[in-house]
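Give me structure tokens for this 124-residue protein.
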Amino acid sequence: MLGEEVTQTIAPGTEGQLGILANHAPLMSELAPGEVLVTLADGRALSHLIISGGFMEVAPNGSHTTILADSAERADEVDVSRAEADLAAAQQMLTDAEAGSTQQAEAQRSVAHAETRLRVGRRR
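Here you go.
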């Protein structure tokens, strides 16, 4: 949970990036694997979380945004070695999955999540 005042949240929607400013209209959206970025009221930009998917809701009065993630990891806690191993395992799952199957869709999400973890982990 981030308890500081935020002026902007950028989250990975399933149809593209979602940018939410303070006092945004109410919204409910599905999220894809990726990185959640926030800009604090003092102007600092933070890569706060890496999520594997989930949902985002902007409150009716626009006063807060809630992200319900399948899994979340703080960007500063990414273990690069583990992320590399997870990416290799996800790529193997994708190779083994039958085209058009639910296993293929799940493997694609796993690859996207692992790639995000690795990219963010290497940036630190």
